[in-house]
Specification:
The chain has 19 helices and two strands. The chain has about 325 residues and is mostly helical. Strands 1-2 form a two-stranded antiparallel ribbon. Helix 7 runs antiparallel to helix 8, helix 11 runs antiparallel to helix 12 and helix 17 runs antiparallel to helix 18. The radius of gyration is 26 Å and the shape is flat. The relative contact order is 0.07.
Amino acid sequence: MLNFCKGLLADLSVMQASEYDALRHGIQLNGDNYLFQLAAMELSLLYDILYAKAAVIHTWHGLCIRVVAPLSVVAAFVLFLLSSKYTYGRADVAVTYFLLIRAMALELASSLRAAVSSWACASYHARGWHRFCGAAMRLRRMLKAGARRGACLDSLGQYNLLDLCTDAKKDDHLRGKIAKMIGLRDQWQKLHYSSTAPISDGIKALVLGEIRKREVDDLRNARGRWILKEKGMYDDLTWIDDHTELDRSIIVWHIATDLYLSQCPDPDEEVRDNIRVLSNHMLFLLVVHPYLLPGVVRNGRYKQNLKYYDMVWWLSLGYGDHM
């Protein structure tokens, strides 16, 4: 499945028959929740490959680097320890010792982290080194390795455009004023108005149910085509689906979802909350982590919409001079 997930990054969605059979067999044995567990594992592996460079570190080249780097630091420390220091000031010597000792500590921690990583444990198990694998797993549990990443995989980032526009006190925060003075207003707003929401069983059931209803092309390329067709609105709003970029589509559907949920609340409160969480998460990706979205994402489009809706809100309140 890892090769299939890597292919998706290059817009290649061909799944081998063996992969499909293994996936179907896993669902039959473990239930629907198996899909989300599998997706979490694949995301974790993709993160290691793209950002942690695990695919390079856990090779012979990476192993050589792991061996040479700490030995080089130790050699530098020994050479400095044995060298004459009469020509150096005491402060320079102390700083050098501090830097060398810190470098050795960092190399030791990095080597230990690589030795007990999930990739290393899988390598130990594949080679039949079960004692090494068991010891590494016990050490991982003792250090609670991967707990932070697991917490990230169990939650969804949240960001709501209308909440930001309608916050009457957004310009009164002391930290916001300081950030504005030093030119970091946008970064402060992203941090201040971002939050997280847990991934509930209701969200998983909602997403899985929608996936089963759709065709593969709808899941990959559509911009809400199915719901427009179901409501008989597709002919009037084809521009949302066929002639718009992903970033614009996310903003349009985010605002439409907020307005719909406020004007026509769903009788099922849990479903309404789950839909809002998913909508806020898509905008969170667009604003805070645009590099996680496929294609070209223009930050200027979000800023233009933020400025426009902020102006509309204050004009509706009769405070046209606020802008």
